[in-house]
Amino acid sequence: MKKTLIALLISLAIPAMAQNAPTAPVQPTIPVMITVSPNAAAALANATTNSIFIDQSGDNPTVNMNQIGSGNKAGSSINPVYLRGFDQKIVTIQQGNNNNISTLQIINDAAGAGVGATVTIEQIGNSNTVDAICGDTTTGCNKAQINWAFSGDNNSMYFRGQGDSLTSQINVAGNGNAFNIAMLGNKHTNIIDISGNNNSVNLTQNSTGASGSSMVLAQQGTGVTYNVLQSGTVDNVLRINSVANGGSFNILQRN
What we know:
Elements: H1 2-13, H2 40-45, E1 51-52, E2 55-57, E3 62-68, E4 73-74, E5 81-84, E6 88-95, E7 100-107, E8 117-124, E9 129-134, E10 144-151, E11 156-162, E12 167-173, E13 178-185, E14 189-195, E15 200-207, E16 214-220, E17 225-231, E18 237-243, E19 248-254
């Protein structure tokens, strides 16, 4: 009887705990996946979007650079793309407008079985600039094969080569482009194929060895200007095949 009374008093002293019905969970909102950066358009239009700087020393390198968009840069006058070694293979492609390669410099030894470089530079677009050097005042750039391709208008190319057996081949489709080439050494070959109007070519070949240099020019277009200077102690060859109206050819050969 006493235990029953105590249990009854405890139950009266502790109030019953209230319980609420459970609430169903709310389904979360899944965010929309962003497939393209919201800054992509602004970045591509920015003059300093992408930059490449390379300082390479060693033999048998393979370097591929591909920049897509506007205002991209490969190297600068202070920090060039600098490649030193035997048997180099270099491909540089820029697609877009207002792109710049400055300065691409290639150096290998003056003699030996491993000399040489194979370089391809392609710019697709308008108002692009490339400045390339093969060799320097102390080390040559022998047996180099340099291929250039330009598709667009108002592009500029500057090339300085020093060494023997250099070959430069240029293919151009566009208007108002300017090409400036200066080569010093022995047995150089320049091949230029241009389709377009109001393009200009300034070429200097200075042969210093036992073999002369040659230039082969194929031109289709109007209002083209060519300034060619070939010099040295041996015979040089210039061959021009032009289908064009207007324009001018200024040629000086001396030995």
